[in-house]
Amino acid sequence: SEVAEVQESATTSAALDEEPEPEGEIDIQIRNVVCNFTLPLHIDLHRVALHSGNVTFDRGRGVLLKQKRDPSCFVKVYSSGKIYIVGCRSESECKRAARGVGRMVQKRMGKVGDSVRIRNYKICNVLATCKMPFGIKIEELAKKYPDQTQYEPELKVGLDWKCNDPKATLRIHTTGSITVLGAVSENDVMRAIEIIYPVVREFRCSLRSRDCVASRKRKQLIRRSSSEEDLFFDVKRAPPLLKQVTFSSLAFVIYFM
């Protein structure tokens, strides 16, 4: 078994040392933009709900939930005037949705002739994804940059890279996919990808090699689990005499512990 493990580790390192696949373009996709703002008036949520479509009034939480179709997003309206918008695909869509929600509240509240302006508009979070044209050795990346990374394979998939300027968190996977979390603008997303690209490029590997290693590790785990199952037997299916011997020996061990 030791010889097999040595051979497997040698083939694993050899596979990862292969030349990476040719690089291509990186397509960055904005998946979600979250913003919030306030309107300078008290909002009667019950009144707005009665005269609006695609809305749900949660009286217990004191919030009005609205699903917008153009642009497609989800809106939370509070009686204090605080409004949250989730699910837009760009900053321009978020601004357009904010203006639409502001006009809708203004009309439903009968404030058409008054000047109601959006205040404290702020983008809270921009979530984006991209795919590198190569695999990434995240184990070696975590060893070289322990202060900037958080890698716990037992708890979650991927490696977290903390970026301070711009402030964002990048979740890096062995397949080369990267998810950007916590950015406050599309420009910050682009800057974060530009910063992380030369870092992950240093630990690039072939995607085919990475897939081979992953499948080899899965087979190894299955082999180990099957060998461990062979060491134990099913007591329910054992003969009666064997059951008595098993339970008596178990009671003997518990008594002397």
From TrEMBL:
Principal cellular location given in the protein's record: nucleus
Single GO BP term: DNA-templated transcription initiation
Keyword Transcription regulation applies: yes
Stretch forming the signal peptide: none
Cellular compartments per GO CC: nucleus
Location(s) in or outside the cell: Nucleus
Xref: CDD domains: TLF
UniProt keyword Cytoplasm, yes or no: no
Keywords (A to Z) from UniProt: DNA-binding, Nucleus, Transcription, Transcription regulation
One of the record's GO molecular function terms: DNA binding
InterPro entries associated with the record: TBP (IPR000814), TBP-like (IPR015445), TBP_dom_sf (IPR012295)
Region annotation Disordered: where it falls in the sequence: 1-23
Any single Pfam family the record assigns to this protein: TBP
Record-stated family: Belongs to the TBP family.
Protein name as catalogued: TATA box-binding protein-like 1
